[in-house]
Specification:
The protein is mainly alpha-helical and about 140 residues long. It has four helices and no strands. Helix content is about 85%, strand content about 0%. It is elongated.
């Protein structure tokens, strides 16, 4: 029973990680389309069809992993929580870039764009750490 619960927890955490990666891709694609000056109706359709479902999927999987605690996956859970926080910060920064204040100066916009790039890099670092952790966990499981 305990092994089954650990396997389920591991699968949920991996699904959440994949959902977060899809969310990152969706935000990056939306940002690219926004910067390319795509039609507002097309942007809204993309947001409704791709970005918002990705966010809902992340929220659903997060609630499942929180309701199914397992100490074996605590380090992985911590990395996923960091990744989620990073994604929320990325989303906030992206919204500010996509819809800048009318009084925003060019220098402020450039600073915000640099911040967005830094947040995306941070998310990538956390994602790589999560992959490394999973590879190590799998290697330990194989060698055990």
């Amino acid at each position: 029973m305990k092994a089954d619960q650990s396997q389920v927890q591991g699968m949920l955490l991996e699904a959440l990680s994949r959902a977060l990666e899809h969310h990152t891709w969706a935000l990056a694609e939306y940002q690219d389309q926004t910067q390319a000056g795509c039609d507002n109706d097309d942007l809204e359709q993309f947001k409704v069809a791709v970005v918002e479902p990705a966010v809902r999927d992340c929220e659903r999987l997060r609630s499942l992993t929180q309701n199914n605690p397992d100490p074996i996956y605590e380090a992985e859970r911590s990395l996923i929580e960091q990744l989620e926080e990073c994604h929320q910060e990325n989303l906030k920064t992206f919204r500010e870039l996509a819809q800048p204040r009318k009084s925003m100066l060019l220098k402020e916009f450039a600073t915000l764009a640099e911040k967005a790039t830094a947040v995306q890099a941070k998310c990538q670092e956390i994602r790589l750490a999560l992959r490394k952790h999973r590879k190590e966990r799998t290697l330990v499981a194989i060698l055990s």
